[in-house]
Amino acid sequence: MSLAPRLPERPGAEAVAAKGWLAAHRWLLLRRASQIFFLALFLTGPWFGVWITKGTLASSLTLGILPLSDPFIELQSLLGGHLPTLTAITGALIVLAAYLLVGGRAYCSWVCPINPVTDAAHWLHRRLGFSKGWQPRRTTRLWLLGLALLGSAVTGTVFWEFVNPVTIFHRTLVYGLAGGWFVILAIFLFDLVVSRRGWCSHLCPVGAFYGQLNRFALLKVSARGRAACDNCMDCFAVCPEPHVITPALRGTGPDGSPVIRHFDCTNCARCIDVCAKDVFGFAIRSDRSEVSVRPHLAPES
Amino acid sequence: MAPISPERRRFLENGFRAAAGAACAGLVIGLLGERARALPPTALRPPGALPEDAFLSACVRCGLCVRDCPYDTLRLADLLDGPAAGTPYFIAREVPCEMCEDIPCLAACPTGALDPALTDIAQARMGLAVLIDQETCLNWQGLRCDVCYRVCPLIDEAITLEMQPNPRTGVHALFIPTVHSEACTGCGKCERACVLEEAAIKVLPLAIAKGELGAHYRWGWKEKEKAGQPLVEGIIDLPDRAPPGALPGGRSEP
């Protein structure tokens, strides 16, 4: 049995030294900006009276014309015995198409309001040096996904919506409710104390649903500069789903492709940020090209 | 039977554990859902809402109906409110439905949980007004309050005043507010307007307010009218057994 290398204490420090702070946090900053942007679309109306998007992530209307609906919720509704009207079906298809382009779980890291909560919990978790805690199998979320669909069919309801923290939190913010804050506190404490990266990376069936879109999605992260990898392990340390990296980085996948094909990848692109060797970059799923050394890292001639 | 290999055993154990975990989660969520199914009697759904069972599979809790309600009648249920969290409802005593002719809440619904088949707000059935307490209703005491009747958007259709003798004075009339379910939309204006501390007339969800005849039951006189003749020929007219001196019809000898 080989001894796994220890994960670095301060992942990204090397990248900051090599590329500068801003370049080593570029995608993280973009991602936070995206999360704020998508939240702001819904909040400018109730807060300032400037209506851009009405509704919640479950279903919304943007600028009075663009309907968007969560395909996972509409699927549960359908299984629950309700045939949604054309508006909801159109909205769900638009969302499906969008995530087939940018990667299903891009929803998790670029849009979902729970992500900043669990990211904060994880940041604190690392600072406090807590142990992993309870680590349910990563496939548990697939069971919960099955449960959400089966539950909808059996009880004739939109089953997961009784407890879904994603929409509960979003609703709480957008409609100024109170109860949702307790759910968020629970998720935060769960991730901080009970289970490291417990919710988003192990349990959430919403992420599991969008992960299924990842099987066909176009935009991927590729370890195309893997030849330059020096095994510093920084990418593994920051990745919320580190098991997705190995097949691409080490070429141990079925076809040895450098593209991260695993459906758990959230396209958060933090690996691109923290790699001092610029191993990672966005690519189309079929793009198997590799670069040996990135131009700006080549030694001066 | 060959002994189970350790790998297979672990595989089965993990699968069983995950399935059992999911089942536990399912039970908890199922119980929450069951609780949400019982809508509190004061919570009314927006116009056109599907029957409660169908509503829970159709409503995605986006709140678009709430946003487009011009009178802030509708609100979204918070986690600790009675109705399923995130679903829309209103409390008639606080803000009743103004029965907008263009039904903006319904137009906003993306899923059909508010049924687009409803085009005439007068056909909405959000609930049914019930004069629930005769002991405090002023009209029942012989006063002419009439407020519920006056504010009714379908005055003389959904609520009428039915006159009957006032037995307390013997010479006056009682004007009884009487709700007709074939016209009442359940908008709640009567409950909102009731002058009492606690309304004597209340709008309740139809499932609570309305009785339902057994499917087999027939009103004899209606069947007779429909058939144009008695349904059973030659009913035997039994002899009246009245006390000596009494006349048919309960009158006594003058």
Strand order of the largest sheet of chain B: 1-3-2
Query: Whole-number radius of gyration of chain B?
Result: 28 Å
| Quaternary organization | heterodimer
Looking at the structure, what is the overall shape of chain B? extended
**What is the percent of helical residues of chain B?**
25-40%
Q: What's the story with the biggest beta sheet of chain A?
A: 3 strands, antiparallel
Question: Could you tell me how far the N terminus lies from the C terminus of chain B, measured between alpha carbons in angstroms?
Answer: 101 Å
Return the average pLDDT of chain B rounded to an integer: 90
Number of helices of chain A: 14
Element order, helices and strands of chain A? HHEEEHHHHHHHHHEHHHE
Question: Order of SSEs of chain B, N→C?
Answer: HEHHEEHEHEEHEHH
Low-confidence segments of chain B: none
Q: What percent of residues of chain A are in strands? A: 5-15%
Q: Residue ranges of chain A: pLDDT <50 for 5 or more in a row?
A: none
- The beta-strand count of chain A equals 5
How many beta-strand elements of chain B? 7
Distance between the termini of chain A: 43 Å
Give the structural class of chain B.
alpha+beta
Characterise the protein shown here:
The complex is a heterodimer of chains A (301) and B (254). In chain A, 50% of the residues lie in helices and 7% in strands. Chain A has 301 residues and is mainly alpha-helical. In chain A, the strands form 2 sheets. Chain A has a 3-stranded antiparallel beta sheet with strand order 1-2-3. Chain A has a two-stranded antiparallel ribbon with strand order 4-5. In chain A, helix 8 crosses helix 9. In chain B, a hairpin with a 7-residue loop joins strand 5 and strand 6 (173-179). Chain B is extended. Chain B has helices spanning 6-37, 52-58, 64-68, 104-108, 147-151, 189-193, 206-209, 220-227, and strands at residues 43-44, 75-76, 88-91, 128-131, 159-165, 173-179, 201-204. In chain B, the strands form 3 sheets. Chain B has a 3-stranded antiparallel beta sheet, with no helix packed on it. Chain B has 8 helices and 7 strands. Chains A and B meet through strand 1, strand 2, helix 3, helix 4 and helix 7 of A and helix 1, helix 2 and helix 3 of B.
